[in-house]
Specification:
Structural class: alpha/beta
CATH architecture: Alpha-Beta Barrel
Number of domains: 1
Shape: globular
CATH superfamily: Aldolase class I
Largest sheet: 8 strands, parallel
Distance between the termini: 11 Å
Number of helices: 8
CATH class: Alpha Beta
Oligomer: single chain
Radius of gyration: 16 Å
Pathway: Carbohydrate biosynthesis; gluconeogenesis; Carbohydrate degradation; glycolysis; D-glyceraldehyde 3-phosphate from glycerone phosphate: step 1/1
Family: Belongs to the triosephosphate isomerase family.
Bound molecules: 2-phosphoglycolic acid
CATH topology: TIM Barrel
Protein name: Triosephosphate isomerase
EC number: 5.3.1.1
Subunit structure: Homodimer.
Length: about 220
Amino acid sequence: MKPLIIANWKCHPTTLIEAKGLFNSVKKGIKDLKNVEIVICPPFVFLPFLKSKIGSQDCFWGESGAFTGEISPKMLKNLGCEYVIIGHSERRRYQKETDEIINKKLKAAISSGLKPILCIESLAQLKKGLKGIAKKVIIAYEPVFAIGTGKPCSPEKARKMRKAIKYPVVLYGGSVNSQNAVNYIKEAGFQGLLVGGASLNPKEFIALAKNIDFISKKR
Ligand code: PGA
């Protein structure tokens, strides 16, 4: 498979004009890359306006009903979303999402036909999140100390975790940039990356994507 790069915009930007600008710059910069799969995950409100491979940063665990403020996986699927990030550490921390909630969201996403990406930082979270789920979902190993801190996990340490996660597709996330991205694929053995901060800077993100495309072409 081609390396998978997921851009997690988090709660940025604050206008549709900026979102379209960022999206179009990235789209233009990556249009000739054939050896990498790139998915943009903007905030919900921008999803209908960005036409290409898109994903969501979260979803609800039900299909529809009296759940004020929630966005269901079915809605996302019907909008053209392909992927959904579930259980990001920021949601575990600020929205108090538990492994049980995350497990319900994963099941709902799978039954709606979305491809979920389960974020974990420990094997315990992996086990609890996947309880009762036989399907091999995409896993993202994101050590919290590395998220948004500019202090990435060393490829050696990441490699150990990659080995311990016995899943076919595992992404690394946490302070990935154009300089260190290749290490996680080549040295640490990951199948892709989950990129936060660097995905908001088109120049940086395009450079990162090109570096991964280049090594993937050579393999
Ligand atoms: P970061 O975020 O690249 O800004 O560290 C990664 C993430 O939270 O998915």
